[in-house]
Amino acid sequence: MRMDIANPSEEHLMLREMVRQWVQEEVEPQALEHDKKEIFNLDLLKSMGEMGLLGLTAPEEYGGAGLDATSSTIVHEELAFSDAGFALAYLAHSALFVNNLAYNGNEEQKARILPKVCSGEWIGAMAMSEPDAGTDVLGLSTTAVQQEDGSWKINGRKMWITNGVLDESGTPADIVWVYAKTGTDEKGRTRMSTFLVEAGTEGYYVGQKIEDKTGMRASNTAELVFENCIVPAENLVGSEGESLIHMMSNLEFERLVLAAMALGIGKRCLYEMNKYASEREAFGKMIRDFGQIQRHIGQSYAKYRSMRAYIYDTANNMQLGKAGQRLDSDGVKLYAANAAKEIADSAIQVLGGYGYVGEYNVERLWRDAKLLEIGGGTNESHEKNITKDLAKNQDPIID
Prior knowledge:
The structure is a single chain. By secondary structure, the protein is α+β, with helices and mostly antiparallel strands. Helix content is 48%, strand content 16%. A hairpin with a 5-residue loop joins β4 and β5. It is globular.
């Protein structure tokens, strides 16, 4: 490995080398089995706390590593190279919960909770999507009503929540970041607020575990139910009605690391097809000597290098905790999600029948790649956002 856009400093390079070795030793051996059996490796995720990876972007005084967006991009890429389902569970904890709390929680909340989620004692989740509200976040129906003693009563159901359930017995996430409607403003617009709900809180439980998913089967997905769930006043994040302010900045970060997962998937698929094409013979020569195979490999390499450059350019310029970076966070996820699926499709084609079965990895990665066009914002929502943001700029050349 060398210093370049994807390893802009010695610290980044050392991080990549450490994670890559750990992935080869610990993640790769379990990936196929956990996907096949739809099992979430909770112990393996918790063990990342010992390496300082669960709180990668959290401040050091709370047990985090205090690193940047590029560091998180590196970790997500390396994890997804081996096991994208496990990488998604890591993303839900480290990016959707820990990073959110690190940049948007108050001092009391950070001091009380961050050490536990950085160490792996607690595993977190973020609950935004609902059965009838996904991309349309303002259409959510979960409500929170303040009580006379200052506490909040939450009612609603959240759907498609990664890490929503932690094991086969139905244990919910140790702590979850919940968005709820707390009324409307003078113009009739939804006022959305954020709450921290801890396991053991009465009225907070798993509705159902979502099973038989197309991909990302090594991560647990669940419906979470909040039924007259009372949380104390101190578990309100920020001020009532200000969720959209911090939601946007963290969604931009989420889209970057989802793109990093696409990069890891694309890189692994390119590796597998190149290796196979150099070993398999047909009609007396290696299949890599046939133009049909060269088209798949050549185009896949170009797509991989293109998304790598775009992803790390975006990562190196991203300021965590600040909104206003949507144009490229949407653009990089839109491009990378499409590219990863196309590379995975080419890999299956190159491997032929072998590519169609799980043992050769690319079938699993092809299934995993599809979620990236849906989760964390659909392709269509990214296209809408990009077009809307470009309309604000009169110069078609974006610097």
